[in-house]
Amino acid sequence: MSKDFVLPFKNLRIKDISRVGGKNASLGEMFTQLTKHGLRVPDGFATTAEAYRYFLAQTGLDKKIKKALTGLDIKNLKDLAYRGKTIRQMISATPLPEKLTKEVLKYYRQLSKKYDTENLDVAVRSSATAEDLPGASFAGAQESYLNISGEGEVLKAVRLCIASLFTDRAIVYRVEQGFDHLKTALSVGVQKMVRSDLAYSGVMFSCDTESGFADVTVINSSWGLGENIVKGRVTPDEFMVYEPLLTKGYQPIIKRKLGSKEVTMIYNKASGRPTKNLTTPIDKRQKFTLTDSEILELARYSITIEKHYGRPMDIEWAKDGHDKSLYIIQARPETVQSKKNVNVLEEYVFDKSAKNKKVLLEGIAIGSKIGQGEIRVIKNVKEIEQFKPGQILVTKMTDPDWVPVMKMAKAIITDEGGRTCHAAIVSRELGVPCVVGSTKATQILRSGQKVTVSCAEGERGIIYQGILPFTIKKTSLKGLYRPKVKIMMNVGEPDQAFNFSFIPSDGVGLAREEFIINNYIGIHPLALLNFSKMPASVKKQVKQITAGYSNKTQFYVDKLAEGIGRIAAAFYPKDVIVRFSDFKSNEYANLIGGKLFEPVEQNPMIGWRGASRYYDQKFKAAFDLECRAIKKVREIFGLDNVIAMVPFCRTIEEGQKVISIINAHGLKKQKAGLKPLKVYVMAEIPSNIILAEEFSKIFDGFSIGSNDLAQLTLGLDRDSGIISHIANEKNEAVKILIRQLIKIAHQYKRKVGICGQAPSDFPDFAKFLVKEGIDSISLNPDTVIKTTMALKK
Question: What is the model's pTM?
């Protein structure tokens, strides 16, 4: 091996990890191999492991470091901090040998010349030879220094990077990984700074970081330099792109979430410090950083990088405010979900005795586990010695100095941060449930308080009062029996769809729009359509929720489309049956502005709901928005596995009117490259079955709503507790109607499924349906495996 002390990116490949570490080897690989495929990677150079060892040997630092680490006990945090600080000070104060100094300055001058300047602004980053490997990675194990310019500052930053090989967390990491402190070397990468201080930057993953779902790119973005996202100082914007249809020319941005982007990191040369944080102006906080075309461009970069490396990747990017271009500034293997055993389904489920749960706080869930224990609030890293193993760490935000205590925590809760902040990345690595971006955890929670932290209920991470009982269910999915009847799933929560996609199924038999409208929109559609006429109090609430959208009705269409899109993407190309909204008037009234548009009905359960709303002039404009959302999912996202379904359609005339509106939106019209849209009807009213022959001429299929069918067959109100004991889908009258529907629908070559509660609750009812020849049974996710196995018997 040659004794080069410095190598330019153009001479580096991924095989050079042992010489320049994973970070710099990856930069060299992308610079030499992927820029020809359209990626932009800023040029730079890297010092080598040989340079590091030469520095230590020439200056005698190697012997001093060995002596300083003799007798180290990483559990003694005070002693660890003292030894680490001693070593870092020794390295920082020791000048680089002359030969190494000349090499670094030679390449720095060449890089400056390439970019037509004298003292180029550069990022100086550490790249340890045991860092960023597929099996050994840790977020922020060493330091980076941004906006460094001038020869003296570059040399100083190189020494500081080398010193950061001996931060407390890096020392602990090596001990736990079994790496020899003096056999691990450090390379320093010097790369042209991208002027994202004048634009924005962020992190992206080529898979979903929570579920491991492989076919999406998840992008986080915030104003200014990217360090704020990694350090968790901001809650960034979040975007998600479905990769398989992006490569087919569609624009499947299936998630947009506005972050608060509290601060912006910029250059700060005037004060003598490289960077500083400014409070982000409110107008920029309420604006999305990335345009649609930029989101899609980044996703294409992600696909290119993942394809080249052959594994899920964790990627840093930045936009230059001068040339307006997007750059990739780092890529490393994703090390958590890529190791996941997809043949074992692990579910954390609260016991039934935990039904009266008191919510203390909410934030963003990281992982899918539940943790519980005693709170320890630590507001400053100097106080971490107070933390005891098994406690729950509560702090404003974490950085790499917190890693020793994070490893001892049962759960982690932070005030700040998003899905790609330090706390999120490290907690995933450790397998510890974590709630970030709670905003007020350090104010609301108290040391000594006992809580349960749940990340097992979708996107929201919830902190409950007390120690609540739960179980961990593990199910082997390998070789699971597949019955002849299609087993589908009822999925309402888009953020759980990726997790549910790993359960063997034939798609989604019921995706309820109500979940999306309630949880992701929260506003009555007519309040958005009539925004200018709304009272001041309603306007204020609407403005807060729709920040980032000048067009309030487009907010409704986009959020509905994105929610449907995530469910459809999770199961693509399998069928996903999406039911148009089926709120009752009292439920619609509970949405923001809803009371201004909804009647007060004595019995909303059998009142103004379903199809009767869609053609009514008092509501038709709102139904138009739902049609626009389905159109966007199919034609813009390319998710043609979506089947639309009309609920509570009482008469043939109602069905004809609703289909006419759907046709007016061009939804049934054949589009090039897309399967034609099918529209099913819910069979939940006796008239649907008595007139099944006529309904078969209007709709492409039926889905039995067994709850409502039992209610209307037996003449009861299932919201009434007094006669709830009569409500039973297994009643013979209900079964006769189901048998009749299946027979008539099949005569007209129409499919019949069921999405009601009965087959989830009663395995014998599921067997009855199979015997009668039903085409599909849609079950609640937690009963899919149980019912599948019951059908085998």
Answer: 0.87
